[in-house]
Amino acid sequence: MNELTFLDLAILKKVDAESTVEKFGSMINTSFFETANLLGTIKIKGYINIVPSVGGVSSVALTDAGNSLLAFAEQKSGEPIEPLDNAILHALAGGARELDALQTALNIRGADLAYHINKLVKQGFMDFEIRSAKVYFVLTEMGFNATGGVRVQQKLDAPEQELKSDAKPAQAESKSDSPLSQAVSELKKEEAASQIAKEGAASTPPWVDPSAVKPASEKVAMKEDVAHIISDRIHIPRPEEKAHKPKKKELTPEEIKRREKTSRFISKTRHYMMEYAPYILLIAMVLAIFAGAIFLSLTKLA
What we know:
- By secondary structure, this protein is mainly alpha-helical.
- Helices cover about 65% and strands about 5% of the residues.
- The chain has helices at about 5-10, 20-25, 30-45, 65-75, 85-95, 100-105, 110-120, 140-145, 150-175, 180-205, 215-235, 240-245, 255-275, 275-300, and strands at about 50, 60, 125-130, 135-140.
- The protein has a two-stranded antiparallel ribbon with strand order 1-2.
- Helix 1 packs across helix 7 (about 110-120), helix 2 (about 20-25) crosses helix 3 and helix 5 (about 85-95) crosses helix 8 (about 140-145).
- The protein is elongated, with a radius of gyration of 48 Å.
């Protein structure tokens, strides 16, 4: 009994007269190999029997120990809520969603934990889901109310503290809008402007007359004048001018056909020349050799 876990109990509750190893995996959202491993472990504990039959189908049946275990779990599920049940609900509210996490947090035997979880599920305080040979728990509304919402209250207190911390910078900003702060900012601006003027004077070489140095506003005006001169000399067409450009003359259907025929003729000629170029060269060479032979024969006769 000490080796019992809630996963074993949940699997035993799903065994019926038509249960087989091959079809049991779909009932607990687990693959065939993991399901066979779970059923084999429960068989070793003595709660089920696996009987192979003709055709490769292995049936699963409860033993006397399995039936008595289910009867005992059903009896325990009707008992009133105890401190251990409250501890399980609080551990689940604290984030322990898996069976191993619950057992580690409470440090109790697997069989005792199995019976108490079964009671809480039966009475509607919590629910569970089996996926890939693991059990995942979740609180119901009744279970959440039973815990007093401790975890959620902590989360709700955190945003309030953040709002208070955000309010302090806002108060500081409102203080910065006072007349004294505005006067200080204006003084800082005047000091920055004078500092820039001093740096500009210091950067002027000693052989340059400071009066000849033009201020920045005049330099900007000179740049604008140069830009106007360049734009006048280099004509850049505007969108309106582009729109008024004369359109190309549209071709008549006869001219289009002529151009198509010409392009086809040129493309065919290029194709044949590329395709038969070696033969043309060979014929030309043969004709040249033949002409040379005739020329030599004529010179000898002469």
